[in-house]
Design a protein that fits this description.
Layout lengths: L4 E4 L3 H13 L1 H4 L5 H14 L1 E7 L2 E10 L11 E9 L6 H18 L5 E7 L3 H8 L3 E8 L2 E9 H13 L1
Parallel strand pairs: 4-5
Antiparallel strand pairs: 1-2, 2-3, 3-4, 5-7, 6-7
Helix pairs in contact: 1-3, 4-6
Length: 171
């Protein structure tokens, strides 16, 4: 596997790539996820958040999304960034891919939004894999009801996550 390229969606072509990837992998988000749900989610990320594409060569192999602030607080809580989507093609799932994409997203948040002090992560409570992975970087801080069931929320300071990711970079 070559080094992955991560980039924020900025052009119509980027958003098209992200849309096609998410449509192909919508059942990985949740088994009952529909095309309409996918389009609505993409619209929210495009208008209220940011989408990160992960590519291997010219092929999109993953994406993530974050909000600066939270929807519940009408994005007024600028010291918080909420990452609530991290998705990779099955062939690319593994710690290293997650760390590269997650690291890019955290560095991007730190550079673009220096006022962010806290990173929150949201995972479907029933997704044991994602919950174990998030618990390596952040502490559980509560749950919330989402359209597809309960989600567990995790929180950590951006400084703590950056420090932990730096350790992974040395490996």
């Amino acid at each position: 596997m070559t080094k992955l390229q991560c980039e924020l969606c900025a052009s119509d072509d980027d958003f098209a790539r992200a849309s096609l990837f998410l449509l192909r992998h919508m059942r990985d988000v949740h088994p009952s996820f529909s095309t309409l749900d996918t389009v609505a989610l993409l619209y929210q990320y495009i208008t209220e958040g940011r989408i990160v594409l992960v590519r291997d060569g010219g092929e999109t192999v993953g994406l993530g999304a974050y909000y600066h602030g939270t929807r519940e607080a009408d994005f007024e809580n600028k010291a918080v960034a909420l990452i609530d989507l991290a998705l990779a093609d099955r062939a690319y799932r593994g710690s290293r891919v997650f760390v590269e994409g997650f690291g890019f997203m955290v560095r991007t948040i730190a550079e673009r939004h220096p006022e962010v002090q806290e990173i929150r992560l949201a995972a479907q409570s029933a997704n044991r894999y994602l919950n174990r992975l998030y618990a390596k970087f952040a502490a559980p801080c509560g749950t919330r009801e989402a359209r597809w069931g309960k989600e567990t929320l995790y929180v950590s300071s951006i400084a703590n996550i950056t420090s932990m990711l730096a350790k992974w970079d040395r490996v």
